[in-house]
Design goal:
Layout: H1 15-35, H2 46-64, H3 68-73
Helix pairs in contact: 1-2
Length: 84
């Protein structure tokens, strides 16, 4: 019996999508950490944790080019390969 190995982290984001995700993730992290623990804190507690989690996941997704939500839905923003 032959085992078929399929890569798990196949890129499913095109470059423009990766750039937008990277910038968005970085901005969310800057917002979360810049207001954390200051007297002018706009966000507290669970909101800061949520911003950090979403920002980190979005930034990571932009860096590696793979989105877990896209993978679950079977979606890809990459252009399909040309037929041979």
């Amino acid at each position: 019996m032959k085992t078929i190995h399929r890569p798990v982290l196949v890129q499913n984001e095109r470059p423009a999508d990766r750039i937008v995700r990277g910038i968005t993730g970085a901005l969310l992290l800057v917002i979360a950490f810049s207001f954390f623990g200051t007297p002018f804190a706009l966000f507290e507690g669970a909101i800061v944790i949520a911003l950090i989690a979403v920002g980190a996941l979005t930034l990571l997704s932009g860096l590696i080019g793979w989105c877990p939500v896209y993978a679950l839905l079977g979606f890809s923003s990459c252009t399909p390969p040309a037929p041979r």
